[in-house]
Every structure is written in structure tokens, then in C-alpha cells.
Amino acid sequence: xxxxxxxxxxxxxxxxxxxxxxxxxxxxxxxxxxxxxxxxxxxxxxxxxxxxxxxxxxxxxxxxxxxxxxxxxxxxxxxxxxxxxxxxxxxxxxxxxxxxxxxxxxxxxxxxxxxxxxxxxxxxxxxxxxxxxxxxxxxxxxxxxxxxxxxxxxxxxxxxxxxxxxxxxxxxxxxxxxxxxxxxxxxxxxxxxxxxxxxxxxxxxxxxxxxxxxxxxxxxxxxxxxxxxxxxxxxxxxxxxxxxxxxxxxxxxxxxxxxxxxxxxxxxxxxxxxxxxxxxxxxxxxxxxxxxxxxx
Amino acid sequence: xxxxxxxxxxxxxxxxxxxxxxxxxxxxxxxxxxxxxxxxxxxxxxxxxxxxxxxxxxxxxxxxxxxxxxxxxxxxxxxxxxxxxxxxxxxxxxxxxxxxxxxxxxxxxxxxxxxxxxxxxxxxxxxxxxxxxxxxxxxxxxxxxxxxxxxxxxxxxxxxxxxxxxxxxxxxxxxxxxxxxxxxxxxxxxxxxxxxxxxxxxxxxxxxxxxxxxxxxxxxxxxxxxxxxxxxxxxxxxxxxxxxxxxxxxxxxxxxxxxxxxxxxxxxxxxxxxxxxxxxxxxxxxxxxxxxxxxxxxxxxxxxxxxxxxxxxxxxxxxxxxxxxxxxxxx
Lengths: 296, 331
Ligand SMILES: Nc1ncnc2c1ncn2[C@@H]1O[C@H](COP(=O)(O)OP(=O)(O)OP(=O)(O)O)[C@@H](O)[C@H]1O
Ligand SMILES: [Mg+2]
Prior knowledge:
Number of helices of chain A: 13
Oligomer: heterodimer
Order of helices and strands of chain B: EEEHEEHEHHHEHEHEEHEHEEHEH
CATH architecture of the largest domain in chain B: 3-Layer(aba) Sandwich
Pfam families (chain A): ABC2_membrane (PF01061)
Largest interface: A-B, 45 and 65 residues
Protein name (chain A): Transport permease protein
Order of helices and strands of chain A: HHHHHHHHHHHHH
Distance between the termini of chain B: 28 Å
Subcellular location (chain A): Cell membrane; Membrane
Membrane topology (chain A): Multi-pass membrane protein
Shape of chain B: elongated
Family (chain A): Belongs to the ABC-2 integral membrane protein family.
Number of strands of chain B: 14
Radius of gyration of chain A: 23 Å
Bound molecules: adenosine-5'-triphosphate, magnesium ion
């Protein structure tokens, strides 16, 4: 029975001998040890996400599909008949909107992924391990961020190839990218929180269809100025509009407005930061709580 | 083996658990000595999974107290988690990565160093016959392979207490045998195992003690032999002629005090004697003879665990049709 005796519980450093009771050689964990373990847990769960993508690189390509389809439909079909105020063409206006879609789409894979983990019992298995709950979820969202950075870079590259340009310099463009990734981080937490609460992959998959209309009632595809009153209010205050406006602002693709502008669109960077802080303040505790208490 | 009755590895006192309108556990008491296997039996919905999940820190009891490896599952869940392995009722493995990576990640989450986690994954894959499939995605594994991977994922640390919820459901006989072997080795090494199962022969072979749950309560517990002894002797008579079944049944009823079961196709009557009324073979043969019953074969023996189960819960463990035995007797 040498193989089974190989490891001691919890990786403790005394030779393995199972004893019921506290005197089994597993030392209590210090505060510093706890912090070290939390970091290691976050990294391990990030690794899990990265390994998943390594075996399914098609997913990265697939996440480009929606923005590219929108580019064809809006940029080339509708766009051929569309005018936006100012000198810039419609496609210049559209591209930052499509970058924003990458950020918004963080909801879908994380929501179905979390619901699938619950359904298959993977969440339960993780919950029987001595890991930090928040670190576990944090690791997952950070890994997704790394993957989305690749997706965003690919779409930026395509935009440049099609003649889209950032006009306000490199630093400003970098700030735009950072803001887009921040919002992707936010939508990831929203997705994980909802997925853990829903707990069923099929329900989550059906709900993720709702993300599309959510992204439509915004300035992502057309300026909100032409929308009917009540719809315009919703679109102006939709957090997604703030992100798209901030991206346009920082990339130098904004268009002059024809009418009075709502506060979030007048200060899109501040609005994006405020929305992000608010959404994280709601969904991070929600997700951690759902992860901790699922099935109780 | 350290059997320390004053320090059971698992200790449950008066645990209650409700899910909305359903009461899953109503005052469960249970104690499992260190280094033994306890088989948790009970009909569907008896509360076996709920009890296991509470002990594995996944579910919180509404009332009562539960300790695992000396730690309280509610107030010291992390200390419990450092010492347990858990394989739930369904295989919980990540499908999109390889079997090896599954084990490696769990090792890391148990805070084994990277090298040790890798070595441990190799050892387990080698030892439990998944070596050839180690680097394939779990998505392509058969159901049995998944189950096996799920089980060894609970052994990445050598747990002090291992919870297995129906570990062999859906496995072929060989894989079942393998898993029994694993459990025996672990126990020989000092691990305490709590195992739920629908297969009574499995409990019979593996368990040092059996705990029978019904409606969220413990209704009987003890070594399998003691449980069987408590419900008397099993008598079976095979006849030459089906026509004599009723006569033979009457003889058995009078002799055992139990309610005989009849099997027309096999021309067989069987009965389990009520506790405290042992059946002697010469007497049985004399009585059958006196009634003119021509017996081809007469068998006398301990009841099976199935009989125990039926007597205790009033329900068969499996779906085979059985005519009623005596109503529930609690030893
Ligand atoms: N999460 C839950 N929500 C609602 N009801 C639940 C939940 N978990 C268990 N129950 C109910 O509690 C009772 C006990 O269920 P449990 O799963 O513990 O039974 P079991 O003995 O494991 O049954 P089986 O042999 O079918 O696995 C059942 O009536 C079940 O419907
Ligand atoms: Mg069950």
C-alpha cells in the first residue's frame, strides 16, 4: 500500500497517519499562510480556466464571431445608408462599440460556465476543498481577463486593418483598452454570480440571450440622440453606453452631439468607473455568497 | 488499527435538516469509529445524501451537532476540509481538461507543492488503471472511467475520513471489485470511510458497521451479522409440485411465526423466523413430512441483508417483487 501512503492529509509535513481528532499532525494555518494559500488558490483556478481554453482554442475564435457579424451587418449593410454627425465615418463610430461588445460578452461564458459547474457537481467538489472562496472566484475572473485581452487585441488588429484609427495618441488608447478590460472583469463577476445562483446550464444558456437586447438599447450601434424619449433615457443610463462613449472618447472617435447630452455620456470615463464600482460592489459579494452557500 | 470508541471519526447528534417543505433529516444520530467502514443504507429519499453532504461541509444542519475527525462541521469547516475526501453521487470532474490535470489541480488546491501534486497525480493514475487515458480530455472518458477519476480525485490527499455516495452505481462488476479493493486498502491504512450504497452485498462485504436510515432517522445500526441475527433464521423449501405451495407455506408460517413468500416459477416457499424463535432442521423436516409435502430441497440459514432491509423499512432495497414479511421490527 505504498502508493496510497504517499501523501499526508493537507500536505502537512508529518508522515501520514490518520487519526481522528485534532492531534493528527496538521498544524493550524497562520494568517500569513492563509494569504499565501489564497494566492495559490487563485492561481490554481486561473490555471484551470487557461487549461480549458488551451484544449478549446476554438472558443477564442468563437467569441470573435458575434462582433464580426455585427461589423458586417452594421458596418457594411446598414452602415452604407447611415450617417453620423461630424466628419468621421460610421465605421469609425462603430468599432469602439464592437470593442465594447467584447467587454459586455463576458457575462455569457461565465454565467453558463458557473451554472455548468454547479450542475455537474464541480462546484461542490471545490467547496469540500480547504480553499479561499473569494480567491477561487477571483482567479477564474482574472484568467478570463487574460483570454479576453487576446480577443480584444485580435479585434483591434482587424479594426486597424479595415482602416479604423485611434486619434488621441497611444496613452489615451491604452486607457481605453484598460477601461474595456475593467468592464469585462465586471461582466465576468456578474455572469459568475448569476450562473451560481441559477445553477442550471440550460436556464443560464437561455438567459444569456437577453444580453443581446441589453447591448442594443445603447449607443453601441447608433447615437442615442435619435431614439424616442423613454428609450433614450434607458440607453443614456445603460452602463454599456458609458463604456462605449468612454472608448470613443479615449480612442478619439467621438461624434459631436446634436442635442443635450445625459450626464453619463458627458463624463463617460467617470461614469464607467462609477458603474464598475457599483456593479462589483453588488455582484462580487453575491457570487462569493452563492459559491459558499450553494445547496444549503 | 486505532479503534478509539471515545474519539469516533464521525459523530452526529440530533441533526435536523429541512429543504422547504421536505424534511430530509429528523434527529439523526450516528457514530463511526476511526479506521472502520460504515455502510449507510436506506430507501430512496431516506436522507443518506443529505447526511453525507452535511458531514462534508456542503450543507448546514438546521439543528444538532456533527463532528468529523474531531472538528465541528459548522464552526471549523476548513479544518474538516483539510482532512476529508468526498465523492458525490455524480462524477464531478472538469470535462474540458485532461484527467491528469484534474488531479493536479486538486492537489494544488490541497496546497501540495507543484512537484508533489504532479507526482501524486501520476501515482494515482498508474495505480488505478487510468494511466493510458491520463492525457486525454475527460469529455472522451466512459462513464465508468469518469466515476473512477472522480473517486481518485477524493484520494489526492490521503484523507482521514472519506465520504463516498454510491461509489459503484453504474459500474461493471470488475470496476466495482476494484473500488472495493481501493476502499479496503485505505481502511487498512487508517482511513475512516462512510459509504452509501444501494447494493446490500456491497455493504455486506465492505462495512464493519451498517447504519440503516429511514425518513431521516437512524432505525438500526450494528455489524451486518448482528443485524441479520436479530431478525431470525431464513428458511427455504423447494417443492416437487407447485400444488403443494399453500400447504408448505402454512407449515412455514406455523413454524417461523413469519409471513412466507412464494415463488411459483421456482416452486419455492421462504420465510424468516421472528426474532427469538430459532428453527431447527429436524423439526422442519418432520412438520413438512407430517403435512405430506414432498420437499426437493430444504435450506436453512442466516437471512440476507435484503431481509434485514425489508424487515426494517417495510420496503425492498431493490425492485424485485416480494410479498410482505412481518411488519417493521426494530432490533
Ligand atoms: N437541495 C434540496 N432541495 C430540496 N429537497 C431536497 C434537497 N436535497 C434533498 N432533498 C429532499 O430531502 C430528502 C432526502 O434526500 P436525500 O438525497 O438525502 O436522500 P437519499 O437517501 O440520498 O436518496 P437516494 O437513495 O435516492 O440517493 C428527499 O425527500 C429529497 O427530496
Ligand atoms: Mg442519495
